[in-house]
């Protein structure tokens, strides 16, 4: 066993231990936890979509504690100002000068709760932080602490008083993850824990910042063959030119195909998925496993799709069935 393989196995055990610690607090939601880890290990941001009460906030805060990272939850509201997010300049009367008061954005993991409830100015301030890993207060730019991860949530049901995210901002999230209801058995366990007062928030940190940076380096070293690289390009191109891939039925529903960020993030996410599975190389199954979450917010459908109740996940499912893997 090579030194790299031994290191890989060591971190795989630590990751499983971290997931186990989260499971002490959160029942179910392993899928969401795995997606959060993929985002963290690829230096990418995640958009979570789900109705209230599915433990999104609890899961994210627990992951932050298990990973020994600073966590801030920001409730996005219609009256939120950019200064409430990034900070502002305040006048110190004693010193007779202005000082910088940093906002809650200065943390490792940011939960942007109900991000679509704030107006464009606030969203653009968050966008600078997401893209540039820095914020500007007054005339000075401040680098954000590493690692820096934005996990945004939005309610897919309630649309009153919301500001739909611009496509340019949605595209900057690596994945859009749909958070589902727990199973009947999981919900029974949740109900019993709460009613019996057996609910504990105590977890122990498992990974350090240095571990996270080391895992990021290891994910970068995961090998992907040229044929699978070309398969990713074919998948993304099929969303733009579906007729060329004999997807005539799907073509009538697609208004715009996925951007180049789709291919970049498919590559990164597939490597991270392979790493989490304990492999040092990518399989086609890794790409298919992450394809829906990476592409579902990057394919824009038309009104005809809405009328026929066709979802982007339906389109992606057909793509994965019909687009061949290059040899």
Q: How would you portray this structure in words?
A:
The chain is an alpha/beta fold. It has helices at 3-25, 30-41, 56-66, 82-86, 120-132, 167-170, 184-195, 209-221, 226-240, 248-251, 260-276, 284-295, 303-307, 312-322; strands spanning 46-49, 71-75, 87-92, 97-102, 109-113, 134-137, 140-143, 149-154, 175-178, 254-256, 300-301. Helix 1 (3-25) packs across helix 3, helix 2 crosses helix 11 (260-276) and helix 12 (284-295) runs antiparallel to helix 14. 38% of the residues are buried. The chain has two domains: 3-210, Rossmann fold; 223-322, Magnesium chelatase subunit I, C-Terminal domain (Helicase, Ruva Protein, domain 3), CATH 1.10.8.80. The mean pLDDT is 84. A hairpin with a 4-residue loop joins strand 3 and strand 4. The chain is 48% helix and 15% strand.
Q: How many domains make up the 3D coordinates?
A: 2
Percent helix: 40-55%
CATH class descriptor name of the largest domain: Alpha Beta
- CATH topology (fold) name of the largest domain: Rossmann fold
Q: Can you tell me the residue ranges where pLDDT is under 50 for at least 5 consecutive residues? A: none
CATH architecture name of the largest domain? 3-Layer(aba) Sandwich
- Radius of gyration, rounded? 21 Å
* Biggest sheet descriptor: 5 strands, parallel
Round the mean pLDDT to the nearest integer and report it.
84
Determine the number of helices (DSSP H or I, runs of at least 4 residues): 14
Secondary-structure content class: alpha/beta
């Amino acid at each position: 066993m090579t030194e790299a393989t031994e290191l890989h196995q060591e971190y795989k055990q630590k990751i499983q231990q971290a997931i186990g610690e989260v499971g002490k607090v959160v029942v179910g939601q392993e899928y969401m936890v795995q997606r959060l880890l993929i985002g963290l290990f690829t230096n990418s941001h995640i958009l979570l979509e789900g109705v209230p009460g599915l433990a999104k906030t609890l899961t994210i805060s627990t992951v932050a504690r298990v990973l020994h990272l600073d966590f801030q939850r920001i409730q996005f509201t219609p009256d939120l100002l950019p200064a409430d997010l990034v900070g502002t300049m305040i006048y110190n009367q004693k010193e007779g000068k202005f000082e910088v008061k940093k906002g809650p954005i200065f943390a490792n993991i940011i939960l942007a709760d109900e991000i679509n409830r704030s107006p464009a100015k606030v969203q653009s301030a968050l966008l600078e932080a997401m893209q540039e890993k820095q914020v500007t207060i007054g005339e000075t730019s401040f680098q954000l602490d590493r690692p820096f991860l934005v996990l945004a949530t939005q309610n897919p049901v309630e649309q009153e008083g919301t500001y739909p995210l611009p496509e340019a901002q949605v595209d900057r999230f690596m994945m859009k993850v749909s958070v589902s209801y727990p199973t009947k058995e999981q919900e029974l366990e949740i109900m019993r824990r709460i009613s019996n007062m057996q609910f504990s928030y105590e977890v122990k940190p498992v990974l350090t910042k240095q571990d996270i940076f080391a895992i990021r380096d290891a994910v970068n070293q995961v090998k992907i063959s040229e044929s699978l690289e070309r398969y990713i390009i074919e998948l993304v191109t099929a969303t733009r030119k579906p007729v060329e891939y004999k997807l005539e039925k799907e073509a009538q529903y697609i208004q715009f195909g996925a951007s180049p960020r789709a291919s970049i993030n498919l590559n990164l996410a597939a490597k991270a998925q392979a790493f989490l599975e304990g492999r040092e190389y990518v399989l086609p199954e890794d790409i298919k496993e992450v394809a829906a979450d990476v592409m579902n917010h990057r394919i824009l459908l038309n009104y005809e799709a809405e009328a026929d109740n066709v979802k982007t996940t339906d389109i992606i499912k057909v793509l994965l069935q019909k687009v061949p893997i290059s040899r």
